[in-house]
Each structure stands twice: as C-alpha cells, then as structure tokens.
Design brief:
The structure is a single chain. This protein is α/β, with parallel strands linked by helices and about 170 residues long. The chain has one domain: Rossmann fold (3-Layer(aba) Sandwich). Helix content is about 50%, strand content about 20%. The strands form 2 sheets. It has a 5-stranded parallel β-sheet with strand order 2-5-1-6-7, with helices on both faces. A two-stranded antiparallel sheet has the order 3-4. A hairpin with a 4-residue loop joins strand 3 and strand 4. The chain is globular and about 50 Å long. Bound molecules: adenosine-5'-diphosphate and manganese (II) ion. The site of adenosine-5'-diphosphate (ADP) has 14 residues, from helix 1 and helix 7.
Length: about 170
C-alpha cells in the first residue's frame, strides 16, 4: 500500500445500502465518506440530465479530476454504483454490496423510483452487473461481495469492513 491509510470503494446496485454502510464505516474509522452522486450534483460533474435513465450523465473525467487530490491522501470511503472508470490504483479494497430481489424492490419503491427504474435496477442486481464490472476492473483478491439484506447484515458488514481496513493499516505499518 503506497498510502498510510487505504481507500475503500463501496459499490453495488442502487438500493443495496452503499450510502448507509459507507457512512457507518467512515464514522467507525474516522475516514472521509465520498458520495460520488452528491459530488456530481453539487459540483456539476455531469453533462446533463438523462431523460431515459432518469439520472445525470456523469462526466467521468471531471469526476476523476475532482477526486484525484483527496484520493492521494488515502482514508476515503467512496460510495458509487459504478466502478469501471475510477483509476485502479485508487483502491485497496472494493466491496460489492448485494441485496435479494424482494428486499431491493421494496427499498427502491420506498425511494419513490418509477416502476421502470425499480425494474431496471432489480434486473441489474439479478444479472450481477456491478459485480461483473468490479471483477473486470480490479484484482480479484481485493473484490469482496457482501450480502446486505437486513440490519444484522449491515452491522456485520460494517464490522467486517472496518476489520479489513484495520488489518491493512497494521500490515502497512509492520
Ligand atoms: P444505496 O446508497 O446503495 O442506494 P442506501 O444506503 O441509500 O442504498 O439504502 C437504500 C435503502 O435501504 C435505505 O432506505 C436504507 O435505509 C435501506 N437499507 C440499507 N441497508 C439496509 C439493510 N442492511 N437492511 C435494511 N435496510 C437497509
Ligand atoms: Mn446512495
């Protein structure tokens, strides 16, 4: 590890619990939580609203430029549903959160997504699109899928991720 503190990517289909998990892990470790979607909206790192997919088309180069300096410091928990455009060197661990169909469906409906967007995302989860993207973009030994169906899972995942990170920090110092 070239940084004193690692950078962690928490990815997964929308609704799998990235933001909830990332906030808790960041709090537990005293790391910075970077919600990429929020940065995109707040800093205008996009090329406009995509009518078809009901989201901003993020400008990948702008996002990478905006994040580069803080990522160099380490100690970041990055939260985003995509992962193939980040530089591979940024991350020491890539967590892929997963949720079962009915749970994910309920969460996305509660979020007020259109039926089309709910269905698309549930389909994306069934097809393991994000898991495949992570596997193609990062070394297999740093890509860790974690089920996140309920609060027990959430609690365990936060402890597991924090444990991995502490292990990496201890390993780097040794
Ligand atoms: P994402 O950032 O991946 O889109 P969120 O963290 O916003 O997902 O979570 C989506 C919804 O699911 C929220 O209402 C959140 O409270 C809920 N949620 C997240 N993780 C869990 C979990 N492990 N068990 C139950 N509900 C969860
Ligand atoms: Mn989120």
């Amino acid at each position: 590890m070239s940084r004193s503190r690692p950078n962690i990517l928490i990815t997964g289909t929308p609704g799998t619990g990235k933001t909830t998990t990332a906030e808790l892990v960041a709090q537990e470790l005293g790391f910075r939580h970077i919600n990429v979607g929020e940065w995109v909206r707040e800093k205008g790192l996009h090329s406009g609203w995509n009518q078809e997919f009901e989201c901003y088309d993020l400008d990948e180069d702008k996002v990478v430029d905006a994040m580069e300096d803080v990522m160099g410091d380490g100690g970041n928990i990055v939260d985003h549903h995509g992962c193939d455009f980040f530089p591979e060197r940024w991350f020491d661990l890539v967590v892929v959160l997963q949720a079962n169909n009915t749970e994910l469906y309920d969460r996305l409906q509660k979020r007020g997504y259109s039926q089309k967007k709910v269905n698309e995302n549930v389909q994306c989860e069934i097809m393991m699109v994000v898991m495949e993207e992570a596997s193609e973009s990062y070394r297999p030994e740093i890509v860790k899928p974690l089920p996140n169906d309920n609060t027990d899972d959430l609690e365990r995942n936060v402890a597991t991720i924090a444990g991995w990170v502490r292990g990496m920090i201890a390993g780097a110092a040794a």
